[in-house]
Design brief:
By secondary structure, the chain is of the alpha/beta class. The chain is built from nine helices and 21 strands. The chain has a seven-stranded mixed β-sheet with strand order 17-16-15-18-19-21-20, with helices on both faces. The longest helix is centred in the N-terminal third of the chain and has 16 residues.
C-alpha cells in the first residue's frame, strides 16, 4: 500500500491512513504492508520510502530501522524539537516558550537496561526491544544514546552468556536464569556500574563460578567497575521481591549536578532513581528553581531522592520532601548529609496521605511554594485536593506527560490559579518523550 505519513501517534509512531508504522516521519511517502488490521490501533510495516520527508536524515545507528528505543533518529533534530513543542501546545491549547534543546543529542543517557531473550531454537539475544514487536529482542552492537562502553559491555556479556550454558528467563513458565543487564554511569564522574538481573527461582540460581566469570568479563572493561547481582523473585499471589548481592568493585557510584546555586553530589546504588540525562537534568533543575520565589516553606512532592528539593534549599527556610519509595527516601537522607543540607526533611509515604498527617500536627506550616514531579499518570486525587486546599502562592509542576499535566493544571486554574509559563525541555532526543514545566500562581 502507498500512503503519505500525516503525523505521529501518541507513542511516536508515524501515522498513515490511520495505521501506525515505525521509523517513518510526517512528509514521507511510503510503501507499507498491514500487519494488524482487526484490532486498533492498526499497525503496518515499512517496505520502502518512496519520497522522503524534507525533515528526514540518515540515522547514525545501524539498528535505527529495528530498534524501538529511539524512534525519531531519522528526523532532523530541529524538527524533533518543533514536534515536541507542538505536543505541549496541543495539550494546553496555548503556545509554550521555545523548547530548550538537550546539550548533547547523542551519548546522553546514564542508564540503560538490556533484555536477555532466546527463541525456541535456542538462539540468544541480548539487546533492546524490536519496534512494534515487543517482547522480541534484537542483538545490540551499538547504541548512540549512551557512551560507547555500554555497547562494548553488552557484546562481552553476550559472549559470556553463550559460553555459560545459562538460559534466558521465560516468565510464563518461571524458568530460566537471566532477565536483564543494567548499566549505569556517572556522567560527571565517569564511574561505572553493571547489574545482572536474574530469576528468583532457586532452580535457576547462578553458582559462584558463573558469577565470578560474569564479574571478570565486565571488569575487563574497567577494573573499578561496580558489579551487582539483583535477584527478582516473583510468586503468584505474593508481592514481587528484590534482593541484591554486591559482587565486586565499589558498592555505589557517584554523580554530580552542577547547578547555578551549588554543585550537588549523589550516591547512586543499583536501585537509586536518577534523571537519565544528567546534563539536561541540570538545565531542568536550574529552570525550575529559577521560577521559585524566596520562600519560608517549600514542599517537594514525589521528591524521589530529593534532588529538586535540595536545589531549592538555597532559597527557602525549610523544604519538606515527600516520597513513596522507602529506598529513595534512604538515598535522599544520605544525600542530604553528603551535601550538608540541614533545612530539608523527607517523609516516606503516599503524598496525599502524608500531607493529611502533616496538616493534623500542631507545628504544621502551610507551604509558600510547591514543586511537584509526579509519575506519568499525574497527581493523585488526594494530592491535587490538598494543593487546592493549601493554596501555595506558587506551584512549579514538572511532568514527563503533558496530557495528564494539562488535565491537572486545568483543575488548578478552576481553583483560582493562573498558568504563567510553559517551558518544554528536551531530555530524551530521538524519542517522543518530553519534559515540561508549568508555572502556576494564585490570582
Amino acid at each position: 500500500m502507498e500512503a503519505q505519513v500525516q503525523g505521529f501517534s501518541l507513542k511516536g509512531y508515524g501515522v498513515a491512513d490511520d495505521v501506525e508504522i515505525a521509523h517513518v516521519i510526517p512528509g514521507d511517502k511510503i510503501l507499507f504492508e498491514l500487519t494488524r488490521k482487526k484490532r486498533l490501533p492498526k499497525k503496518g510495516r515499512l517496505l520502502e520510502i518512496l519520497t522522503p520527508s524534507q525533515d528526514r536524515v540518515e540515522p547514525r545507528c545501524a539498528h535505527a530501522q529495528t530498534c524501538g528505543g529511539c524512534s525519531w533518529q531519522q528526523m532532523a533534530y530541529p524538527a524533533q524539537l518543533k514536534e515536541k513543542e507542538l505536543r505541549v501546545k496541543k495539550a494546553f491549547k496555548r503556545d509554550p516558550d521555545p523548547i530548550i534543546p538537550s546539550p548533547a543529542p547523542f551519548g546522553y543517557r546514564n542508564k540503560m537496561e538490556f533484555t536477555f531473550s532466546e527463541n525456541r531454537g535456542g538462539q540468544k539475544y541480548l539487546g533492546l526491544m524490536i519496534a512494534q514487536a515487543e517482547p522480541y529482542v534484537f542483538n545490540l552492537t551499538e547504541c548512540h544514546l549512551t557512551h560507547p562502553w555500554f555497547a562494548d559491555v553488552v557484546s562481552t556479556v553476550r559472549a559470556w552468556w553463550e559460553a555459560s550454558g545459562l538460559k534466558a528467563y521465560f516468565p510464563p513458565a518461571d524458568a530460566g536464569s537471566l532477565r536483564y543487564l543494567t548499566l549505569r554511569e556517572g556522567m560527571r564522574t565517569g564511574q561505572k556500574m553493571a547489574i545482572l538481573n536474574v530469576s528468583g527461582n532457586p532452580e535457576f540460581a547462578l553458582n559462584r563460578e558463573q558469577l565470578d566469570s560474569f564479574t571478570k568479563a565486565v571488569q575487563a572493561h574497567d577494573a573499578n567497575m561496580s558489579v551487582f547481582l539483583r535477584i527478582h523473585q516473583t510468586k503468584k499471589g505474593k508481592p514481587t521481591q528484590f534482593f541484591e548481592m554486591h559482587l565486586a568493585g565499589p558498592d555505589h557510584i557517584m554523580e554530580e549536578l552542577r547547578l547555578n546555586t551549588k554543585t550537588l553530589s549523589f550516591k547512586i546504588s543499583p536501585i537509586s532513581f536518577f534523571q537519565p540525562n544528567t546534563l539536561s537534568a541540570e538545565i531542568l533543575y536550574n529552570t525550575a528553581i529559577s521560577l521559585l520565589p524566596e520562600s519560608r516553606v517549600v514542599y517537594d512532592l514525589y521528591c524521589g531522592t530529593g534532588s529538586l528539593g535540595m536545589a531549592a534549599s538555597t532559597q527557602a527556610k525549610q523544604v519538606i520532601g515527600i516520597e513513596l519509595s522507602p529506598e529513595a527516601v534512604i538515598d535522599a537522607e544520605e544525600n542530604l548529609k553528603r551535601n550538608g543540607i540541614a533545612n530539608m526533611q523527607v517523609f516516606q509515604g503516599d503524598v496525599g496521605k502524608v500531607i493529611t498527617r502533616l496538616m493534623g500536627e500542631p507545628t504544621f506550616v502551610r507551604p509558600d511554594a510547591v514543586i511537584v514531579d509526579p509519575p506519568r499518570a499525574g497527581l493523585d486525587p488526594l494530592a491535587l485536593h490538598h494543593l487546592k486546599t493549601l493554596r501555595p502562592k506558587t506551584i512549579v509542576y514538572i511532568s514527563c506527560n503533558p496530557l495528564t499535566q494539562a488535565d491537572n493544571v486545568a483543575e488548578l486554574i478552576q481553583a483560582g490559579y493562573v498558568l504563567k509559563k510553559l517551558q518544554p525541555i528536551d531530555q530524551f532526543p530521538h524519542t517522543y518523550h518530553i519534559e515540561n514545566i508549568a508555572l502556576l500562581s494564585l490570582v
